[in-house]
Amino acid sequence: MAKFIKALAKREGASTKARPKSVALCVDSEAILFYLWCCDEYTFTHPRIMVQLTFFLQILTFWGLRPGEVVESSVHRGSNKGIKYGDVTLSLVRCKEGLLYQLSIRLRNRKFKRGVESETQDIVLKEETEPRKRFMCPVTFFLAMALADGVFVDQKIPADFVHRPIKKTANSREIHIRDDKKDLPVLRKLQGNSISLDQIMSAHSMLDYLKSLCSRCGYKGTVTCYSFRRGFANAIDGKVSQGRMKQVLGHKSDQIFQSYITSVIGIDTQNVVRQKPEDSTHVDFSRSIALTRDVAAPRPQGSLLDKRHLDPPDELIDAIAARYPNRPHKEVRRLARKQPDFSMNKLNKPTAPAWLDGFF
């Protein structure tokens, strides 16, 4: 096929251009999650979506998984297959940093191995100990979802995880999950304004959330789930053997990895030829999505808070309802938002204007 395309390009002038493939590195994930939790004004339909999106992005960043290996694949729509609580083992383990919580996640839906129990693989995610990086701790966000779903046998509230008892002779202690919760998907979709009780999030929906978030964050161009998979592949390139590279990425051939390499050569030749240490940080910056980011770029509609996202004060609603007793409640709230003194100042709670009685 490749020879045919090259020949066609010579004979017919067919284009040989490749579609641009963005690369998102770990530092980009950190910037995106910081923006999501500290700067983003977008109002999600349900707050759990923020937690799910964070956990999903952390898995892509730390393990480079395909989205269909975490949530429901678009190819297997309606299967309701992805990571479920029964696939997760939460343990308290002894590490050089002390006693840490650790997640072991069984991947039952890897490409080429879906449904083959003998070829399932496990990935490990451990608790983040650096205080300034706690927002990148996958264990924290998993616990937030698991406690909300009530999946543990003994632990019911966050305080139950503060004390870390373990036998002196044991290297780990498993935190048991209830049998009736093991078939429950961890990342679940919206149904109306609520989170589904048993239906998993689709890869397409997760992609929409991610693309919208990156757009609000100021990244130009298209950022997809595979941007983070390519970032992971480029990050571990040269640091692990070809065999381990193929295993972790789930590739059948070593050659497939070549399509993940960014077109920007990752060598600081200016420093190398002058016998200086490579500036790898700048090299990574130059070949990642961070290069074209503009935090002041125009944002999509609905990204910023406006009067539609704030509730008018009760006294203002009551005053308008008294003035228009036959108006439906929805119309009364709409009129309240139109009042000039219904301020958008986020530091001050909106209050009813003093001259309200004479306004109508």
What is the mean pLDDT? 85
- Number of DSSP helices? 12
Biggest sheet: strand arrangement: 3-2-1-4
**Strands, total number:** 6
Residues in β-strands, percent: 5-15%
Largest sheet: 4 strands, antiparallel
Question: Which secondary-structure class do the elements indicate?
Answer: alpha+beta
Radius of gyration in whole Å, from Cα? 25 Å
Helix share bin: 25-40%
Uncertain residue segments = 343-360
Order of helices and strands: HHHEEEHEEEHHHHHHHH
The shape is globular
For the record, give the distance between the C-alpha atoms at the N and C termini, rounded to a whole number.
74 Å
GO molecular function: DNA binding
Pfam families: DUF3435 (PF11917)
GO biological process, one term: DNA recombination
Keywords: DNA recombination
Written account of the structure:
It holds the Pfam family DUF3435. InterPro entries: DNA_brk_join_enz (IPR011010), DUF3435 (IPR021842), Integrase-like_cat_sf (IPR013762). One of its GO terms (biological process) is DNA recombination. GO terms for molecular function: DNA binding. The protein is α+β, with helices and mostly antiparallel strands. Among the domains are: 26-211, no CATH class; 307-359, no CATH class. Helix content is 34%, strand content 11%. The chain has twelve helices and six strands. It has helices spanning 2-12, 26-38, 48-63, 138-149, 203-216, 225-236, 242-249, 269-272, 280-287, 314-323, 329-337, 356-359; strands spanning 88-95, 98-107, 121-126, 172-175, 188-191, 194-200. The strands form two sheets. A four-stranded antiparallel beta sheet has the order 3-2-1-4. The protein has a two-stranded antiparallel ribbon with strand order 5-6. A hairpin with a 2-residue loop joins strand 5 (188-191) and strand 6 (194-200). Helix 2 (26-38) runs antiparallel to helix 3.
